[in-house]
Write a structure and sequence with these properties.
Elements (H helix, E strand, L loop, with lengths): L4 E6 L3 H12 L4 E7 L2 H10 L4 E5 L7 H11 L4 E6 L4 H10 L3 E4 L4 H12 L4 E2 L4 H7 L11 H11 L4 H8 L3 H15 L4 H11 L3
Parallel strand pairs: 1-2, 1-3, 3-4, 4-5, 5-6
Helix pairs in contact: 2-3, 3-4, 4-10, 7-9, 7-10, 8-9
Keywords: DNA-binding, Phosphoprotein
GO molecular function, one term: DNA binding
GO biological process, one term: regulation of DNA-templated transcription
Length: 209
Amino acid sequence: MPDPIRLLVVEDHAFTRDGLIATLHLEPDLRVVAEARSGEEALERLEQVPVDVAILDIGLPGMDGIQTAAEIARRWPEVRIVMLTAHNLRPEVFASLASGADAYCLKSAQPELLLLGVRAAASGSAYLDPQIAHHVLSGVRAPDETVALTPREMDVLRLVADGQGNREIAAALGVSVSTVKLHIQDILRKMQVADRTQAAVKALRSGLL
């Protein structure tokens, strides 16, 4: 028998956390080795215990799940990340993917779907709950052939995809923050997306970057 998948469960509501852990403990190939109530506490646990998959609630107090996912991806790239949320909001989906999440699951879904997401993430695959998959499909279609970004817009888009803020982009390119904002507005319009996170994900998934 292969070693069980080691899990970290991060959920601030004790009732939900306990129920989730109880469900996971029923699976012989899964083992909860740590739990946390906040993003900050999750990072402390990862310093102490080897983990294969971190299951993160998006709506954590303080450092939210998306910020926590990004920090885990930066410090422990070998740890796979499953986002767990009660919402199927499009901005949350794209922000989660951009932060480094490997799976996105809904709390309202059947437990079997969460288990599927955990196992998919642990195996190196990606998983999206069927209820939110259409957000990704509609948001990461390749840019239309008539869309052409200028070289400077491409520079801005690369820095956006790297997670840089407007001030950081302005400093890197030697332009004003106002100029960066104008470039980003033009990029969003040309790529037909609503925000910079969608632009970054769409560019990466479509091969534009």
